[in-house]
Sequence to fold (167 residues):
Amino acid sequence: MFTRRLVLVIVALAGSVGHTSGAQPTLWYDKPNGFTGSSTDEVETWIAPGLDGVIHVYPFRPHQGDARDEFRRTLFKERIGTPYREDRLLIAPTFKTMTVSGADSALSASFRNFNGGAPREHLRVAIEAAGLVALVDISANSPQAFERNWPSVSRVLNSLRVVRVGL
Fold:
């Protein structure tokens, strides 16, 4: 009976990915179509088929204070992997409130930046739950690449959900 339930749970979660550890919130989402993925404890990385865009999903980590205010001030830049961290903003970020199932709050920032000397289109989402913050960081080599990859990016964004998994 236990094995059957376990199989049903695995089948129900097929096609979705997310970090799990203890009873803390876990960010789940549908895989981006056509992207190639890899994962470490620190980040899940999805690379576009044309190598012109990337999606990074950073798991929930502790945060002190007002996460929305901090995100508006810093974009949580220090949490982004060094090779993908913006060197210099080209335009001020545009912020929008998002709805993410199970989250206390979610806020997106779209901006253009220099990264390693090249301009990049960027969309970053901060998701807050239980005093923790997870990030989804999306970047592309050009506006055209961002638009070309939008169907897969949209699939990820529209499927974001916070689940509390207890072991």
In short: The helical segments are 2-13, 67-74, 143-159. The domain at 2-164 is CATH 3.40.1000.10 (Protein Transport Mog1p; Chain A).
